[in-house]
Write a structure and sequence with these properties.
301 residues; mainly alpha; DNA polymerase, domain 1; hpI Integrase, Chain A; 3 strands; 57% helix; globular; DNA integration; DNA binding
């Protein structure tokens, strides 16, 4: 069934898509990504996306593959275009033509406990030591660390309140005594410097009215890793990976780790079982049972 093209200025289409995304509660970062992906498709097409055909979508995806666009970017484009055609343009027939790219999932980089200690020691100042310590000590995403407020730290219940984490879900994260002490050290220093407002951001940015950016935290962890002589490729998310892996190696139930990380699917958390080397080493191979049988045979000879 053919659909007549609706002539609409690109700005009007963009506004409609932004309204649709806001109405469905998509995060601002997701909205920006979706608009960027749709703009890339429009640039390839040379005309408004609402005039696209199934063949146009196929050509675009072939173009992405032939020009070496990585699978995560292709899949991001698919998500954005599916939203555009399914929701904004009411063309689910076109959305079904989009194909996700398959790719192997790499194991995450994990630091040893000793490496985490060295990295925190080398952090550029008490604010970043506390921020990176929070990423590791509570297993938080970098965006969650950056937007923490002072009131999110509940020292009575020993919890950290995460508001609107991934998927706009609230949750509680753990607050250990050592992490609390690290945060108090920064709180006292921040108050002395006059950069922390009552009920304000826990890790203020260049202005105390704004939170630290994820870029600032990324830069801090790279500087700390270099100063600590850590050659692994490290990011704030590496500290979250290390938190989950170290808990698993301490025999913490994987379902508890799932809740602490805020994962909606257990499969996502189960990835850490592949990098928990201490857990792997602690498992007895079934071939060891053969040793008992072989020893029994030798005794009968």
């Amino acid at each position: 069934m053919s659909h007549p093209s609706v002539e609409r200025p690109a700005s009007a289409l963009r506004l409609r898509m932004l309204e649709d995304m806001a109405m469905r509660g998509l995060r601002e970062a997701t909205q920006r990504d979706y608009i960027r992906f749709v703009s890339a498709f429009a640039a390839f097409l040379g005309r408004s996306p609402d005039t696209a055909s199934a063949e146009d979508l196929r050509r675009f995806q072939v173009h992405q593959t032939e020009t070496g666009v990585q699978a995560p970017t292709i899949n991001g484009s698919v998500s954005a275009l599916r939203f555009l055609f399914t929701v904004t343009l009411d063309r689910p027939d076109l959305a079904r033509r989009l194909v996700l790219a398959r790719y192997g999932r790499k194991l995450p980089t994990v630091l040893s406990v000793e490496e985490v200690g060295r990295l925190l020691e080398a952090a550029p100042g008490p604010k970043y030591r506390a921020a990176l310590g929070t990423a590791y000590g509570a297993g938080l995403r970098v965006s969650e660390v950056a937007t923490l407020k002072i009131d999110d730290i509940d020292s009575t219940r020993m919890l950290i309140r995460i508001e609107e984490g991934k998927g706009r879900k609230d949750r509680n994260a753990m607050l250990s005594p050592q992490l609390l002490e690290l945060l108090r050290l920064w709180w006292r220093e921040g108050r002395r410097r006059g950069v922390m407002l009552p009920h304000g951001w826990l890790f203020p940015g260049r202005s105390r009215l704004e939170p630290s950016s994820t870029r600032q935290l990324n830069r801090a962890v790279h500087e700390a890793a270099e100063a600590a002589g850590i050659t692994k490729r490290v990011s704030p998310h590496t500290l979250r990976h290390s938190f989950a892996t170290h808990l698993l190696e301490q025999n913490v139930d994987i379902r508890v780790i799932q809740v602490l990380l805020g994962h909606s699917k257990l499969d996502t958390t189960a990835l850490y079982a592949r990098v928990a080397t201490r857990t792997i080493r602690a498992v007895t191979s079934p071939i060891e049972q053969l040793k008992i049988l072989m020893e029994g045979d030798n005794a009968r000879e």
